[in-house]
Inverse folding.
């Protein structure tokens, strides 16, 4: 059983910054990829960023230069640092973990609301 615990969402003004964190707890015997997705009201869930245990990462084009993803392997935690936030960044941000074993099991957090508004 793997549980993802997200935190850091909230209300921020355009141009502001916000940091999200997601801590994974449970049976994590195999390497795993962690990342963030987001979903605006009425839209489908989209990839924000992901990061491998090696530290290799990628960020969606719309967020490059503004968002940074990092992870703390010792604590099985992934972070998303968001700067220069825009209203279109508003949505529910979900943490995702994918095991790299044969089953490639995926786990999702409950989501944390990020609202960018004046």
């Amino acid at each position: 059983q793997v549980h993802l615990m997200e935190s850091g969402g909230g209300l921020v003004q355009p141009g502001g910054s916000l940091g999200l964190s997601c801590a994974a707890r449970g049976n994590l015997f195999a390497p795993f990829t962690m990342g963030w997705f987001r979903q605006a009201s009425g839209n489908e869930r989209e990839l924000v960023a992901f990061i491998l245990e090696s530290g290799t990462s990628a960020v969606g084009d719309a967020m490059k230069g503004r968002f940074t993803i990092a992870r703390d392997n010792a604590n099985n935690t992934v972070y998303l640092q968001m700067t220069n936030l825009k209203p279109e960044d508003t949505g529910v941000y979900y943490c995702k973990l994918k095991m790299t074993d044969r089953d490639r099991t995926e786990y999702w957090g409950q989501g944390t609301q990020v609202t960018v508004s004046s």
